[in-house]
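Re: weekly structure request thread

Next one in the queue (392 aa):
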Amino acid sequence: MLNKFREPYIVREVAPFKVDGLAIPYPEFVPKLYNFCKELGFHKGYIMPSRAFCSDENQGLPIILITKHFGIFPFNHGRVGGMLAVDRHGPHSHHGDDLVIIQATHVGYDPNTGEYGTYHRPHISGDNTCVSCGKLTHVITPYVNRYHLARDRIFLSKDAQGRCLITSKASFIDFGSHPLEQGFVLKLSNMVDANNQRVIHPVSSSSTTQTYEVSPSFQKRLENQGYEWKTGQGESIGERLTSDLFFFKDKFHETDDSLLLERQLIEFMPDIVSAKYPSLRAAKTTIQLEFARVVESIRRGDEYRGRNLLYISGLNIDIPEYESFPPHNYFIPWAAHVQLQDCSSEKCMHPIEQEDLFAKLMAQDSLNPDQIDLKENIKRMLGAPRFDIRAT
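Done, posted below.
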């Protein structure tokens, strides 16, 4: 007898990532972070920070401030897109008694327009507006382009009999007899009802398109949003092509480290490409997926066992030159993982969620009495004796 039991399909979603009211300027964030480490019991002079940032030049100020407030240049945990190299936990743990990891994906913000995703790079002449994170943008752009193509090639209309229809390019449809191997795939089952045999039939077809009658529930959904059906050819579906109505089947186009980023984001690509600011949504998604992956690597590994560790994850907002002010950055905390020395209970090893983390950081003093004077240190280096360095 055949086993007819079938496990339900379980959907994975990312949590709400709040931005409004949670951005902390980096000159304020880093000393607060240092003071939070001290509150947790970390020891002055023995804290080894590490950063997992993109390699872009607009991440320089955060690194300088980490150096200034922690008194040491941070270890590098970073990979493309702000991903974290978990195989560097061991080397990092060998460089200090108390360990801090700051991981952040970044996105540009234009204070003149209030829009995300671009950055003005002053070392480029002429029109110096560029994407804020080249790797992240490079990964999502082919999917964004396919999404916008589909928005223009899928049509809604009403025929002479009053039926509400959807017409799609055949290349967007995953036919039972001819499944799509890659590309944009329309979720027809969320828009069109199947018959009693669970088969979806078109009402008409042409050389390149298929037309279906939409389900009463989908028709009502659009009309509740104020949509008015057009007769004749109708109109393109446009922004009504929401993330629940399509997905991507793809043979990944990346070949270097960014392949890891593409593999991680592909499941959430419909939500990313249909967002108002795809690069912002991609950055927020990466942060959440990375935090879960990295915490699991810490818990499973031995590198930080018996050590004080604070792993904090968030979003770096890059602000270009504005009026008379130089470029600067903000940090929006997402979550943190705390692990305290010689303690195995959950009280001493636990996550801190976004709003609680923000509150804990803001409760700290913005002044750091232990910060170093970078100018004075450089001056002392220049005055140091010249050594006769030889190979033998």
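The longest helix spans residues 278-300. The chain has a mean pLDDT of 91.
Next request, please.
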